[in-house]
Amino acid sequence: MGKTIAEKILSEHSNKDAYANDIVVANIDIAFVQDGTGPLTIQELQKLGKEEVFNSNRTMLFIDHAAPSPREELSNAHSILRNFAKKTGVRLYEIGAGISHQILIEDHVNPGEVIVGADSHTCTSGAMGAFATGMGSTDIAIAMALGKTWFRVPETFRINIDGKLSRGVYSKDLMLHFIGIIKADGATYKSLEFAGETIENMIMSERLTLANMAVETGAKTGLIASDKKTKQFLEQQGRGNRFKTIRSDEDAIYERNIDIDASNIVPMVSAPYAVDNVKTVEKVTGIKVDQVFIGTCTNGRLEDLRVVAEYLKGKKKHVDTRLIVAPASRTVYFQAIKEGIIQILVEAGALIFPPGCGACVGIHGGILGNNEVCLSTQNRNFKGRMGNPRGEIYLCSPATAAISAIKGEITDPRERI
Amino acid sequence: MFGDNIDTDRIIPGKYVVYNDEKELAKHAMEGVDPMFSIKVKKGDIIVAGKNWGCGSSREHAVIALKAVGVSAIIAKSFARIFYRNAINLGLPPFESPEAADNIKVGDEIEFNLKTGQIKNLTTNRIFCVKPLPEFILNILNSGGLVPYLKKELKK
Asked: Which among A266, A312, A390, A416 is least surrounded, fewest beta carbons within 10 Å?
């Protein structure tokens, strides 16, 4: 019987012929935490009496959520991570290195691997053909200690996407469109497999945006078969030798097949206070924007910043709108400097944050004031997400964010074209 | 009683994730929905909710806060998967039952049995059945969570 990508990877890692709904104990390749979830993980490891990890090269700690720390409690949490790294020899990514999911893609994740992280957006790595899923601190503590964890093998929804995205429309718009159809709990527990001509033609950066937001449908992971584009990406990162073809079998069984015609998709936003409260940009055009935030594990990559720079080149942000940009990693930041992107952004009036989660999590800079509206390239717009339940967040693509920063109100990015 | 899609940012807002102390987290439990929750709730109370309870961030602080404030179980129409695993790992029983969630009112007295998967509304005398959990998960819950369970297992 044919297998889906999830079934294949989990079978291989559990030495079992596993299919959807089976419970398996699988070996894991990478386990990681970030500064919000990590201190609890370390606390649980200590309760268990374990001060060593299964593999210190493939266990990582990332200080990305509050980097650098804005308050003493967080500084102390960071110290816990630093001490643990010293004691155990695990890899610690310091403030300024960037967001865990981005660094994992740049330096660590390979097709066919199992990645678990104490962060819900761990599913981002699914775009590389790796079974990547978020868990809580305790689950990761056990995974770090034992090098394995239990999974119920998920059923798969196959999302077949064909057609070409129009100019000014990006994979973020495609994903918001999809979330609008399937809703915030429409794929709870399932594995999503994105496939079709549109995906085959997509560069890695855009694929990552899709996989990143899989969790916003309740899914366990969002997978994309590894192919030529994956191989190219790995070669660019200097680990082409780790390429492996991972794809579902022709006769794999999907719980659902969903077809999407990409050529019909227009720029989209998620309106407050739910990611599935999706509307076309056209419907919300003209809403005044107090803050624009460009960055995050969803859309803070070099390709995103290039799009933003295209819009902002020679222009100024609106006088009543604050523009904050946080590159997803140091590598992204450095490349953006070399390409002159940062200069364009600064000249346009943008404030550049250090690489990291930035304003997205509401524990750092960029907290909204009462009744303020933020337009952001991030993945969540829950009430209180950016630190104030009286603020409103709209989610959009980097292009929509950039042009709206110039106009001071939500604007259709196709306007300029 | 809560509605659909209550995310972990509302169960425990991100600004409190700086605390790893359960007493501090308990003070802010459910603050994003009902700022008075931590004062109103009594030890042993059960949360009854709609679908997709605990969606969003993986923060385990959400389960810690609810447990520390005295919540003894959660009955929801459905759970987001990370919250569901976290609840088991920390020994807070999650029951997925749309029927029970629709037929319990504020103030009803509830009795539950993990082993049989039975939820009994003592006020209305109605019984709801959920599929019992696999044995190893029951063992985790009965041990008070994954770490106490593994401690016992590793000693064997």
From this structure: A390
